[in-house]
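Q: Given only this backbone (209 positions), what sequence would you predict?
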């Protein structure tokens, strides 16, 4: 197995530290060639049984984007109502979506019915296909960050309604709604930590059996 030079290892660690969930974007467009270069990271991603179950939908029309944004606002209001007063006040001050500004928006799906891979590794754990999609998203995220772009993962959505609005096949399950663009600013500290929502662990909890 090939190892990489220490300088590369240090830069990789720096990239991991500087990867952020971006919610504040400039509206500047993203060059198509650059976006394609980043999306090609999906082609390098591992997948269970080499099934490559990811399906990418570019959400571009005003109608589709507005439907997705309204979906978020409804789900966000419901989430806010579920918190007690102190936590609700903090939650209300969070910016949890860059959907109003991000020039590129992608809905990432898992094709649960794909024949590719012939079901290898997914018969006992079919969720492995979705995990494969998550792994591919992570490679895309790091690739975009290395090129100065930011990614924001919007998870406060009703996936059933989004599937209807985007008219995707019934066998596709939503894994992520991603906002992509040039970030307004970048910090090594997650915004949720900056605003007092939660602290990042400093040590990995490991149990032995």
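A: Predicted residues:
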């Amino acid at each position: 197995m090939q190892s990489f030079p220490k300088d590369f290892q240090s830069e990789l660690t720096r990239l991991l530290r500087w990867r952020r969930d971006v919610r504040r974007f400039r509206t500047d467009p993203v060059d198509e060639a650059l976006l394609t270069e980043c999306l090609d990271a999906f082609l390098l991603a591992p997948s269970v049984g080499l099934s490559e179950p990811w399906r990418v939908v570019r959400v571009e029309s005003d109608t589709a984007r507005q439907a997705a944004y309204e979906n978020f606002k409804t789900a966000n209001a419901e989430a806010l109502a579920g918190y007690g007063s102190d936590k609700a006040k903090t939650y209300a001050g969070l910016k949890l979506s860059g959907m109003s500004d991000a020039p590129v928006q992608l809905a990432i799906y898992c094709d649960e019915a794909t024949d590719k891979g012939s079901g290898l590794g997914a018969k006992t754990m079919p969720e492995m296909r979705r995990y494969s999609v998550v792994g591919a998203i992570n490679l895309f995220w790091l690739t975009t960050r290395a090129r100065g772009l930011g990614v924001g993962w919007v998870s406060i959505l009703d996936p059933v309604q989004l599937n209807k609005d985007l008219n995707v096949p019934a066998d596709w399950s939503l894994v992520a709604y991603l906002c992509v663009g040039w970030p307004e600013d970048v910090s090594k500290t997650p915004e949720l930590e900056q605003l007092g929502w939660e602290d990042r662990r400093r040590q990995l909890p490991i149990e032995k059996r």
